[in-house]
Each structure stands twice: as structure tokens, then as C-alpha cells.
Amino acid sequence: MSTSAKEIPFLIGEDFVQRRNVAWRVELGEPDPENPLLEPEMPWDNDHPFLHGTVLRDPIDGLWKAWGAAAAHDPYRYHARRLAYLESEDGVRWRRPELELCPYGEHKRTNILLDVDSGGNLSCMSVIVNPDAHESRRYEMFVLRRPGWPAELSGTDVAKGFGTPEGGEARERGIYHYTSSDGIHWNADVGPVLLENNDPLRQDATSDNSYFFRQEDGTYVSYHKKSIRGFPGNIIPYELGPGGCRILVQRRSGDGIHWDPLELCMLPDWRDTNDTQFMEMGVSPVSGGYLGVVTLYRTGNQALELQFAASRDGRYWWRPDRRACVSMPSLGEYGGGMMWGSHNPVEDGDRLHFYYTGTQGLHGDIFSTEEADLAEAEGRPYKRLAPLHGEVLARVPSLIFHHGAFCRASWKRGRLWALTTASGGNLEGEATTRASIGQGETLDVSAATFRDGELRAELVGEDGRATEGFDRDACDLFSGDTMRTTVTWNGKAAVPTDGLQVRFVLRNARLYGFEFAQPN
């Protein structure tokens, strides 16, 4: 994704050394009026038509394209997920191309590109387009394959087309690398490049949620889920992984095949509730660094929501607030149970879109009485727990189907989160920058005010005192809504000397970003 030179970088907490009466405001994404964009319909995707995949605007032909996991509603083959492909001219109205690659039942033409019989369940499709690469490798894909799963299907215990150094056939569960000339016909390349294993003591393995990215210098980075032992106080017995905690780690590679050891990326901190866990993160470069949209798991109610994260370097990640960036509807609506994020946010003019799978149901059946019912039906002794204020919680975790649809939410670019007053009302808030502005430079801001609000700035020295002629009273008042404007003091914009920090003063105002700029 390209970035605009005119777009002011986003803010992070470390931008400021002093803050008083300010807090982070996260802008909620606007659900697309056409949501759901694509619902379960065909026999091979009537559970969900898209999950754990990539959506992008192809730089080669301009089409909007999506690669994701599609699954049929089959209680005996829950993990039979296929690689499905979607197309669109506008990113809103999506179609299933009728291709002759993978028939399904009586349907000779489908939008399935790889089926389970080519090597088991497929998931977590990271598709990267390289227009300047050799024609046969313009499209590359990292995908999680699980040979032998589901076991009910024959021919799934081998990842077809992938061999071992000893001359055998690849059978390990893990990340496999494919290449393609058109994004439709995929050829096995190398794999597995990483193995799948949820053992918290294994440092050389990935987990079942992972996205891969190619950086501008040609190297690769992966952000993937890993399970560790749960922290004291966050163990929930009815959770699907009791005793564990899902976190995000990152790995780097020069060629996409050989990967460095993992680095910690994101785990619950002091601001998170004790049921917070992380599933996956879609990442895109934006002005100022990298934007992440995190799929966050609330194990207390088995729901998944989306949150923002940001990083200057792609390694250290910061979250502006612990609130969802997309409103979750009521249970039973698409997205009311879980929101599973995609590979990356997508830039579209002055808008930023994020596609997700919105499910109607939860991650687990937490109120099930199946365990007790089965025991009593078989005549086995079983002591029912006393109802907990009208509820009975299952002691045995139960994974249920992810019935979901293809959805998206959108934001105005550069308007994802802001610094505003913690109190509201007419009380002022202050924030002083860590960085110093240089002599002759100007201060540009992206900001908005509301009601009779205003934003001012003053230049302060090491002693915290305002510079004469560049204090708040001399600052020309800003009110309104701008993506970029230059702050002036009695009409002057150029800073008089080096070593001055900026103290922002907000009242009914939102600061989205600032930049020290050279005068034109």
C-alpha cells in the first residue's frame, strides 16, 4: 500500500512526555451499507464464503480480489476448508467466478482454487502481488495446510506437490508456499516453511492463525498466534484452550523460506482485562509506520472483536485504546458473535477499508448442558452444579460452527484515532511532544474541533516555560476540521530557535497527528 506525502503521520503514546487531562479517542469504522457483502450460499461455502484470507486491489489489472477459506456446513468435516476466490469491480459487489479447477458435487464450475484433497484443510491465506517479479511468480501465497485433516477424506494425508529432502512427500502440518502467474492457478513451491504446533514450549513452530507480508526491501515478516501458559487470574475452565493464553509473535526472513526465531509482538498488558487474548493481526504500511487491525478474543464471553494497533518500525506495537474499532452488533447478526480480520487494510482514495468475516455465533458453546445430559442418559453419576444466577456453564469446551458472511468497515484515511480531553466539556487538556522542533521549521497538524472548541500550541523550553511570542496567547486560534494546516503565532510560522518542544492545548478538540515540516 502506498502512502501519501501529504498525509500527516499517526500519533502514538511515546510522542508525548507530558500529558494532562487527555485520552485516546478511537474512531469507529463505518459498516458498509451493503453489509453483508457476500453471504453463505453455495454448497461448498454455506457455512462461510470467506475466512482468514487476503483482500486487495490488484496493481496488475485493477480488479478487487479476495482469497479466503470457504467451508460447507458439515458437522462431520468441520475443518474441511477450501481456498476460494472472489472478484469485484468496486470492492462492494463481489462475485464467485465460475472456474473449472475444482468441481464440487454436481457443480462442475466453482470458485474453488485448491480443495482439501490436495493436502487437507487450508486456512490463513496470505497473498502477495509482485508486479515486477518473473511472470510465473507475480503472485505468491503462504497458506496453512493440515495434511490428514479432516481424516474422513481420503488423499488428504499428503501435501500434493511438496517433497521432503529425503525424496518423500510432505505430510507435516504447517505453512506452505505457492506461486502463480495469475492468482488463480497455483503451483506448489516450498513447504512447509514453518511447522504448526501449539505446544507453548516449542519455539520453532507457528500456530493456526498467521499472516505473512513482503516488505519494500524484499524481505518478509510474519505475525502469527502462539499459545503460552495462561497468566494467573486469566484461566477460564470452559474456554477452548483452558490454561493457555493466545499471544502474537513475529518472525522475519530474507527469502520467505528460512525464518528467524520468534520475537514477542503483543500480549495482554496492565490495561487489558484478564480474559484478553490475541488471534491474528492484519497489517499495512501507512504514513508514520504500520497500522495493525487486531482480532482480539474475549474468552469471558467467547466473542471476537477488532482493535487498532500501531508501530513505527513493525516490531514494537502500541494500542491507543482497549475498545473495539468496529461496533459489534447483537448476537445473531453477522459480526455479533465474532469478527475475524483479514490480511491487511486496503487503501481506496481517501478511504481505508478493512474486510472481515462476521459470524452470527460465538467461539464456543459456553452454556451447554451436553456433558451432564450425556452422563445421565448413560446412567453415569454426575453432579450438576448449582445454577449460577440462572446460568449453568459447561465444564467441557465445545467448538461450534463459524457461520459467517463477508463484511467490511471503512474509515477516512488519517482519521483512525486522536488525542482528546479525558474530561469532556470545556476543560482544557495538554500534551507536550517528546521531539524538539528545529529552527526555521513549521508545525503542521491534522485536527478537528467541535462545538466552540479550539486547538492552540505553544513552544516551550527545557524548563517548561513558553517562548515569548510563541505562547498560547500568541497562537492563532484553530477551529474547524483539517487534514493538514500550519500553526502560526501572530501570523508567524517559522520556529525561532532549536530545542523547543510543542505543548498542545485542546478544548473540545481532537488532535490526529502533527509533523515538523520544512517551509515551502
Class per helix and strand makeup: mainly beta
**Roughly what percent helix?**
under 10%
Helix and strand sequence: EEEEEEEEEEEEEEEEEEEEEEEHEEEEEE
Q: Give the termini separation.
A: 27 Å
Q: Specify the number of helices.
A: 1
Question: Low-confidence stretches at least 5 residues in length (pLDDT < 50)?
Answer: 1-5
Question: How would you sum up the major sheet?
Answer: 5 strands, antiparallel
Q: How are the strands of the biggest sheet laid out side by side?
A: 1-26-29-27-28
* Topology, number of strands: 29
Net shape: globular
- What is the radius of gyration computed over CA atoms, rounded to a whole number of angstroms? 25 Å
Q: Roughly what fraction of the amino acids lie in strands?
A: 35-45%
Mean pLDDT: 91
List keywords for this structure.
mainly beta; single chain; five-stranded antiparallel sheet; 29 strands; 40% strand; 2% helix; 520 residues
Characterization of the model:
- The protein has about 525 residues and is mostly beta strands.
- Helix content is about 0%, strand content about 40%.
- It has 1 helix and 29 strands.
- The chain has one helix at about 370-375; strands spanning about 15-20, 20-25, 30, 55, 65-70, 80-90, 95, 110-115, 120-130, 140-145, 175-180, 185-195, 205, 210-215, 220-230, 245-255, 265, 275-285, 290-300, 305-310, 340, 345-350, 350-360, 405-410, 415-420, 430-435, 440-460, 480-485, 500-515.
- The strands form 7 sheets. It has a 5-stranded antiparallel beta sheet with strand order 1-26-29-27-28, with no helix packed on it. Strands 3, 21, 22, 23 and 24 form a 5-stranded antiparallel beta sheet that branches. Strands 4, 5, 6, 7 and 8 form a 5-stranded antiparallel beta sheet that branches.
- The two termini are about 25 Å apart.
- The model is unreliable at about 1-5 (pLDDT under 50).
